[in-house]
Recover the amino acids of this structure.
């Protein structure tokens, strides 16, 4: 069952899929109904899952699950990954590669593979204060408070050494 993402409790489980490029407005008009259809039918052991989504910066697909009524099972998580793989093929984007880094350059969201981002850090093309997206957050509260943070406060800080 679809719920408003903002109404999810702070302990809702979060999955973040970052795209290697932004979605166009035209793509978003077809992408959103596909996500809504998936979430409407998403179940675990025959029970509806209360889930919401958002697409920040037209680049990230963030799915949140209220686990107070039903938790995701291995099968339901597998179904969500298959759905994301379907979106990858359908929109010709990369959503599952966790070895990519998205960061802000002013109002623009940039995307690099980890190796290139590490070079940028060494060359001081990005600073300790560069805002990065910490896609490892697990709950809605963490998403709200620690998703967009300075490089020096994220797991990316290990690249500064």
């Amino acid at each position: 069952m679809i719920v408003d993402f903002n109404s999810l409790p702070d302990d809702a489980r979060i999955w973040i899929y970052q795209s290697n490029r932004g979605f166009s407005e035209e793509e978003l008009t077809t992408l959103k109904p596909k996500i809504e259809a998936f979430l409407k039918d998403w179940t675990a052991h025959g029970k509806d899952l209360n889930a919401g989504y958002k697409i920040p910066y037209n680049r990230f697909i963030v799915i949140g699950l209220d686990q107070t009524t039903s938790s995701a099972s291995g099968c339901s998580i597998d179904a969500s990954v298959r759905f994301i793989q379907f979106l990858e093929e359908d929109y010709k984007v990369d959503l599952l590669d966790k070895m990519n880094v998205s960061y802000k350059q002013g109002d623009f969201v940039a995307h690099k593979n980890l190796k290139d981002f590490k070079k940028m850090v060494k060359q001081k093309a990005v600073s300790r204060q560069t805002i990065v997206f910490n896609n490892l957050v697990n709950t809605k509260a963490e998403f709200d408070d620690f998703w967009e943070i300075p490089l020096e406060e994220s797991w990316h800080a290990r690249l500064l050494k």
Summary: The longest strand covers residues 60-66. The two ends are 45 Å apart (CA to CA).
